[in-house]
Amino acid sequence: QVQVVESGGGLVQAGGSLRLSCVVSGSTVSNKFTGWYRQAPGKQRELVASISSGGRTNYAESVKGRFTISRDNAKNMVYLQMNSLKLEDTAVYFCQVAWAYEYWGQGTQVTVSS
């Protein structure tokens, strides 16, 4: 059974940084699509950053230059380093692992205050 668990969210002031972690059990993250999504209140879930099965990274325009996604295949973990956080980054952040199936974590809240 595949399980995805996020951690690292919290309350941070604008301009600050947070590092989100995602641990995957029951499957490996290597050679799979792994992504971070977020959902703000009243908005649809959106893709923030991803690493393709081939290792190519992709970012939403709104986070380019501020967020960095990385993956540790040996530890089966995916990270999202978030710098220069803005109020509009406030959301619940979800980790996804996908191949023929997709698995999601329960989400971790990130709140950016002024």
Q: Care to describe what's here?
A:
The protein is mainly beta and 114 residues long. The chain has no helices and eleven strands. The strands form two sheets. Strands 2, 4, 5, 6, 9, 10 and 11 form a seven-stranded mixed beta sheet that branches. Strands 1-3-8-7 form a four-stranded antiparallel beta sheet, with no helix packed on it. Strand 4 (33-39) and strand 5 form a beta hairpin. The chain is globular, with a radius of gyration of 13 Å. The mean pLDDT is 96.
Characterize this entry briefly:
By secondary structure, the protein is mostly beta strands. 0% of the residues lie in helices and 54% in strands. The mean pLDDT is 96.
Give the low-confidence spans.
none
Mean pLDDT: 96
Q: How does the overall form come out from the CA principal axes?
A: globular
SS content category: mainly beta
Terminal CA distance reads: 41 Å
Percentage of residues in helical conformation:
under 10%
- SSE string, helices as H and strands as E: EEEEEEEEEEE
Count of β-strands: 11
Largest sheet: 7 strands, mixed
Query: How big a fraction of the residues is strand?
Result: over 45%
Number of helices: 0
| Cα-atom radius of gyration | 13 Å
What are the SSEs and their pairings?
Blueprint (H helix, E strand, L loop, with lengths): L2 E5 L2 E4 L4 E8 L7 E7 L6 E6 L5 E3 L7 E6 L4 E6 L8 E8 L3 E3 L3 E6 L1
Parallel strand pairs: 2-11
Antiparallel strand pairs: 1-3, 3-8, 4-5, 4-9, 5-6, 7-8, 9-10, 9-11
For this entry, give a set of tags.
114 residues, mainly beta, 7-stranded mixed β-sheet, 4-stranded antiparallel β-sheet, 11 strands
